[in-house]
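Weekly sync notes, structure subgroup
Attendees: PM, AL, DS (notes)

Item 1: joint prediction request from the bench team. They want all two components modeled as one assembly rather than separately. Inputs as received:
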Amino acid sequence: MSDALRFEGVVKCYGRRRALDGLTLQAPAGAFAGIVGSNGAGKTTFLSAAAGLLRVSAGTIEVLGEGPFDPARHAGRVALLPQDAELPRDAAPRDLLVFYGELQGLDRRTARRQADEALERFHLTDRSHSPLRTLSHGLRKRVAIAQCFLGDPELILLDEPMSGLDPREMAAARDFLAAQRRKRTIVLSSHNLHEIETLCDHVIFIERGRVTRAGALDAVTDRDGRIEYTLGPGAEPDAAALGGGDFECAWNSRARTLTCRYSAARFDAAEVNRRLLPRLLEAGCAILEIRRGERLEKRYLEAENPQRENDARI
Amino acid sequence: MRFWRQTLLIARNEWGYALRSRRALAVLTLYVAVAALTMNGLLSALLRLERELGELLRLSAAPAPGSVVDALWNSVRFRQLVAGAVGSESLAAELVGVSPVALAFAGLAFFYTPLLVALLAPARVAEELGRGTLRFIAIRAPLLAWTLGKFLGQVLLIGAGLGFSALTAWAVAVYRLPGADSAAIGAGLVSWTLRVWLYAAAFAGLTMGAAHLTKSPSRAILVAVLALIAVAVAAWGGGQLAESGWQGWRTLGPLLRAITPQAYRADLWRRSAAHLAPAAAALGSLALCYLLAGYALRRRRDL
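Output from the run, pasted for the record:
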């Protein structure tokens, strides 16, 4: 699979501070990649550099395999939801979307049709002619998201797309984004790890302008080799006996979790459950939750600061 | 081809924005108010002059307002007087061939339009830079298309502002001077409005180019006003240097003056194409040079 976005040793300095410090990463074509990092880690700088909004100090950027972002080559093929950018306050959503559509190469008729579709999709039809200054932050955010999906972009860069949306719109936006999976490459930055886990198939951890960990979400969270059972109070399982030579089980009495590691080459999660669950029930264990893999949050914290994570365990 | 389409789309959007926003109303009100007030003040002075002339000449019947000035303006003696003042028969003939009201409008508009341009146009550039609005465009079109499109849109807006102010000036003149030739005033105003527009375009290039250096609208206005002062000083200083004793300064002076719009204003007062066409070309080129200098500096920075 070719890469839709590739950074090689990219450095971006703001004065003496290195916002990107030799950032190297790849987002495969068709991937839905989630960018995770603490405040100031370089996520927005990364997305802005990818969209050609920043002049980087060193390194190479490849967008859709055709060099760094250039509107002459990439207009209409790359879309961006910038984090703190404001849409023109006096523009009406429909006029603005038609303008953006035409600007990226759509003819007027198509731009109008797509603007109307986008407004309907994001429940903005009744406000389509109201000036943006009269719209709430959440409604403006929906317009900003809608402009990303005009035309047929191959790569979409979304910086905190859900912030400011109400729960209903957040769910609708999440469903819409999930439906875009594998249709195009989407790179999404978010602090909401649950959102990343729900939507993304790839994950990239960035800290201090560097990638601390990256890969397929399943691999990062070990979803194909690890199942965790959370048990209620009462009977405790005999971890050594449960595995029976096929799996490696470990019991954490404090968290009351039974972690089972298995070889993905030999078993799948369903098979592991088929074998383990009857044994646990026979042992009188109360099963409260079954979870494939490790939580992304835990993986992120480990990657961010392994020492701190170890300290926390102690 | 795509680049020019994008440029025109951005210009059209700028124009549309102006029509939608309250700012456009403020711009037009400002232009119209300045034109109405200055024209009214000027005509009051003209009418006072007429009254005094009437009293001095002991005219039996009070003439229709504006007729004395028209008669004076068309008299051979007055033309000779103007020729003596400007030092050129041809320039004098060109000047007195225009309605005095239109000429006065031009004189005022040449003065106030650059100021209005500095107050209004640069803020639109800095505003989009500062609020990040440009990022939604930069992902779709080259920065140069944005720069040129904004300029084109603003120049059209200035043209509309000047058009409205000329219309207002004409209405005030016709109302205050019922004896004057309204058609001649109208034709003169159209002609001078176009010249002032050309002159203003150079200042739009200057102030909008300067606005590329900042992301704050208020700072952009400050920078634009400083740029106006700088070119005024350069135009004056260039003239002074051209007459200085040292050969080096005498060479530098005209060069310094040539890069200011003021150097071409005198040619705009002429009616012959031989003067107007080079002045128009020079002002257009200056506008683009100023603008592109600002663009080149912004291009090296983050958006």
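Discussion: Residues 22-57 of chain B form the longest helix (36 residues).
Action: AL to compare against the crosslinking data before next sync.
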